[in-house]
Amino acid sequence: MKPIKTWSTAVKNEKKKTIPCNICGEMKFKSSLSCGNFGYVRCLSCGLVQMNPQPLKEEIIDRYNTKDYLAYEMANEENYLNLQLLALKDSGFDETTRTSVLDIGCATGSLLSHLKIRGWETTGVEINGSQADYGRRKYNLDIRNLPLEENNFPSGRFNTVLTSHLIEHLNDPASMVREVKRILIYGGSFFITTPNIQGFQAKLFRGRWRSAIFDHLYLFSVKTLTRLLEDNGFIIEKISTWGGLASGTASAPVKRVFDKAAKRFGFGDVMIIRSRKHETEA
User: Fold this and answer.
1) Is residue 210 part of a domain?
2) pLDDT tens-digit profile of 7-65?
3) CATH code assigned at 255
4) Which of 173, 221, 248, 274 would give a disulfide with 238, using CB separation of 3.0 to 4.6 Å?
């Protein structure tokens, strides 16, 4: 079986530095995944899988200041929207009140457009300028072209915050989670979708896993993402996973069996966690 990796920018030499673990702050790591000309380590304290040494923030931002990502997202726009809607449905998104929603890393804005039509007050954050411009022009959306923390949204501005396949790209996921807590109302909902390093495919393919790519600085498990959220003031409400086998790695009947089992038993390739900010300040 040959897994097809998710599209990523080309591996290149970048300025890097060794950093503490983003969850627990420890500095002890061991090799975890070898992916050829890059790799990952695992924190010996909390188990978070990460690139370390890690490229500097300015290097990461430069990766996304190209039109390549727009072309990739446009080619997959409908498929990705459908996958996002299925994930949100699994996590109980339809139970939330249709008020103000922020989508961080909103890409072309297709999900925000879908929600806007259904009565949501929508705002997006997308650092890729080409994608942000596309969403503004095509869907008439409010999309901010700065990293989340630089937008200075008022405290308690949003009822709901979404991120899909974003957190694994960030230098400092904990900073993003803290900022989401600040801008959410008390009791507000936070939905995170990201690859699952403890899924069946990750364990089977290891360094050849389709989500072990140069652009992913962190590879979370349910355990590590849950800890990150709980350590920063969120209550976990629901966890779902999906994706037993990738397309092309098995026959259709075998894939259906694995996909069904992955969702039922929680070993899927991708996960979504629905969490909630505490009703009052802890």
Assistant:
1) yes
2) 899 898 999 999 999 999 999 999 999 999 999 999 999 999 999 999 999 999 998 88
3) 3.40.50.150
4) 274
